Amino acid sequence: MNQILIEKNQLAGGLESLAALTEFKENIIPYIGEAAPYVFVPENIIIHNDHKIETEITDCDFKNENFIDLLKILTSFGTSNLYRILQDTSKKKIYFLAEKLRAVKLSYSEIPHSISVTCESILESKRKGKSFFNVKNLITQEILYSYEADYHIIEKSAFENLYEHLFNDTIIEHYGDVLPETMIDVEDDQRFRILIEPFTLNQCKGHFESYPIVSVAFTAKSILKGIFDFLGKNSLYELDSISIYQTKIMPPGKELIIHVSRYKFLKNLTHFKCEVKDACGEIYGTYIISMKSKALSQA
Q: 115: helix, coil or strand?
């Protein structure tokens, strides 16, 4: 009898997840600004209530700068959840632009290849929203990271008016999934620059259609790679937290110069303040990244 109940519950859970996946693919993804291949829809989605959803992500490598790939997935997942609770019936695209992002590590454990994610979203107004995430070990359910994202919500006509200077109807056939090359220019032990070659239209495919914008996730991943390069390939450091404050959207085709200042307030924690500029000195945002020494934290 117990086995029959277990099988019934598993079947019900599978059908519920399939219904949620269909809801996302047919009634949400086509109406948000992000599109394939940028947007990622997890297979296992559970809708708990009007504001909370859950999913699983398996067989992924989120170590070092690849952790930003997870934040990219989560930010899109939060976008989808905000659209869901917005309950818009116009069937017109709505754009969700990330403004502030913050992830904090809550565990000494390394992030595994398979995780579970809960997301709870709130609308502050029709133009502002937030999504909050807990990232857990899929097996032990230990909370590994917390993450939150703030979004500007912009209707299609307003978005097109606001960013008409970015309009580009070039057909992009191939997705560039390899980010631009980065170089390190060291001034001293406390200051260095990360030089990032221009992002291309191919790399921005799906973000957004006909209005290509460089995702903050792409910039963050390039910056984090530069910091790991600065610390050395054999250094025992891991990401402890990252905060992103985006002040301006970034079009492709801009060479970026990241001015980085290094601070150390605790023995095992090093902070990096990264100011994002283009070659003309235009400022696009500030990233605050904290790195923890594995050797000292595990001693």
A: strand
Residue 199: strand, helix, or coil? coil
**Cβ neighbours of residue 11 closer than 8 Å, sequence gap 6 or more:** none
Of 145, 162, 179, which residue sits at a domain end? Answer: 162
Place of tokens 């989808």: 80
Residue 71 has pLDDT above 90, yes or no: yes
The predicted pLDDT at position 299 comes to 47
Q: Are strands 52-57 and 94-105 parallel, antiparallel or unpaired?
A: unpaired
Domain of residue 143, residue span: 1-162
* Percent over 90 (pLDDT), the chain: 81
8 Å CB contact between 153 and 129: yes
Q: Are residues 141 and 128 in the same domain?
A: yes
pLDDT for the residue 296:
53
- Pair (157, 194) in one structural domain: no
Q: How far apart are CA 50 and CA 239, in angstroms?
A: 33
**246 near 285, Cβ under 8 Å?**
yes
In the sheet with 283-293, reading across from the earlier edge strand, the strands are 45-47, 52-57, 115-123, 128-137, 143-155, 94-105, 237-246, 283-293, 269-278, 256-266, 191-196, 182-186
pLDDT average, residue stretch 229-236: 83
Write down the pLDDT at residue 235. 73
154, 266: one domain: no
